[in-house]
Amino acid sequence: PDRLGILLIDGGGRDGLRPCTELPHVFTHLVASDPVRMRECAQALGGELKRRAELLGGLDFTTWHARYEEARALPGGRRPFGPGDRRGDLDSPASSTLRLRPAAPPAGPGPSPLPRIVVLADDFDALVAPALGSPGRPSAGSVVRVLEAVARDGERLGVHLVATSARPDRTEDTELARGARLRIVLDPPVVPPSPDEVAPGRGRLGHPDGRVTPFQGGRVTGRIPRTATLRPTVVPLEWERMGDPPARRPVRELGNGPTDLALLASALERAARSVNAERLPPLVPSPS
Prior knowledge:
- By secondary structure, the protein is of the alpha/beta class.
- It has a domain at 4-72 and 112-180 and 260-274: 3-Layer(aba) Sandwich (Rossmann fold), CATH 3.40.50.
- The chain is 29% helix and 16% strand.
- It contains seven helices and nine strands.
- The strands form three sheets. Strands 2-1-5-6 form a four-stranded parallel sheet. The chain has a three-stranded antiparallel sheet with strand order 7-8-9, with no helix packed on it. A two-stranded antiparallel sheet has the order 3-4.
- Helix 1 (35-56) packs parallel to helix 4.
- Keywords: ATP-binding, Nucleotide-binding.
């Protein structure tokens, strides 16, 4: 969590990403229903981009970190001198004696390493074209502008963007959509659901070179049966039942266990505590 932070944005204002806040890497969750907090978050994220641009200068995120680690490896954690640095100046007084003026104390290794930040914006189309009467409509434009700044400049600064849209026709002309390097298209679920059809989550990943990779995603918020954690059991199988489809789980066993997301969050939390890693401070205070 101290090296990777996740910023969640619920563009539709429905609080759908709330279960993901259990992950220790999530340091801010913005629901697009409070225009004041939306504006504050957009300003804070824009300020973070400017701060990183000033700190990195002409370097990219990876190069800056490599030089930072190199500086920490020096004795005393001193920063390596570059070609333009001077160890001391010649002081030429009126006399013919040259004296070496001591150099300024060497600077420290610099600020602590910058963590990567991933901004996950759900329902981006609801921010681009908010519905009439939407409470977040007055500040939706400021959020869209800062997200486009992340898409344009964030990669060099260690800030990455993942955006979802239920209405691609509303977002296809945005700078974010035009600059997207990877695109995922989910297949629509079968209605009504059928056991003979593939489970929801089937989709295609589009690469920059035109390749397409099909995949099957999992529903991490679905509750697993508590019996899924029990040891395997052996049951007798009669000859006359050979070839029959496997028996379904009893309905009472479904949906009464923890979610996959909760199990993942718990494991990450334990791992973070084992190395004393703390999550990043929030961009804006959480609503009371």
